[in-house]
């Protein structure tokens, strides 16, 4: 091999040495460098992942007080939400009877009549629709509506209508009678409400 190499000219020797160098680089140096580069990239990715995890942990530690406060506020809101709901419906008839009593207490001067309201297909088991009708003067109706709006648990009003209730004598008379007093008598109004109440879960299945 040495004799063959010695017989080559100087230029040919340079070609052989250059080819050997290229072959050595391609088979040994380049694969090794490629593996080293891939290893460095892998380690770099792991290091970046660890840094991100540490930043997240630090953020959780830093926000621990805020998270605890928000959790306490959420629990308080849930307790308040329970206070906004009526007790579970153990028996629909008993629940409706209790609502009739409640409405009569809120509007004692309106001669209220409470019946089951119109139900829809999507009504939940913890929901009850009621229809309330009554009659009275404007001040009495206004007081009743204010009591419903401020009552807790919540009473939802889905429909509301009010109209003047005329007496039989006024309907029969073609011409209205003149008032003898300085002021006309306050008219009686008819009231009709569509009401919905939402109860807590855990009642009748």
From TrEMBL:
The chain crosses the membrane at residues 12-33. The keyword Membrane applies. The keyword Transmembrane applies. Residues 168-187 are annotated as: Disordered. It comes from the Bacteria. Keywords: Membrane, Transmembrane, Transmembrane helix. InterPro entries: Transl_elong_EF1B/ribsomal_bS6. This is Type II secretion system protein M.
């Amino acid at each position: 091999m040495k004799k063959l190499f010695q017989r080559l000219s100087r230029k040919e020797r340079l070609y052989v040495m250059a080819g050997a160098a290229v072959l050595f680089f391609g088979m040994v140096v380049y694969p090794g460098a490629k593996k080293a580069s891939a290893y460095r990239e892998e380690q770099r990715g792991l290091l970046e992942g660890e840094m991100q995890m540490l930043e997240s942990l630090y953020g959780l530690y830093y926000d621990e007080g805020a998270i605890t406060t928000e959790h306490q506020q959420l629990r308080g809101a849930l307790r308040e939400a329970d206070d906004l709901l009526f007790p579970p419906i153990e028996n629909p008839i008993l629940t409706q009877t209790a609502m009739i009593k409640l409405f009569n207490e809120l509007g004692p001067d309106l001669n209220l009549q409470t019946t089951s309201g119109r139900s829809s297909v999507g009504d939940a088991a913890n929901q009850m629709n009621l229809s309330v009708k009554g009659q009275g003067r404007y001040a009495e109706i206004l007081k009743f509506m204010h009591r419903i709006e401020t009552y807790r648990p919540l009473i939802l009003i889905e429909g509301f209508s009010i109209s003047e209730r005329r007496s039989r004598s006024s309907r029969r008379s073609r011409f209205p009678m003149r008032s003898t007093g300085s002021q006309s008598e306050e008219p009686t109004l008819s009231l009709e409400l569509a009401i919905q109440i939402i109860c807590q879960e855990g009642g009748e299945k």
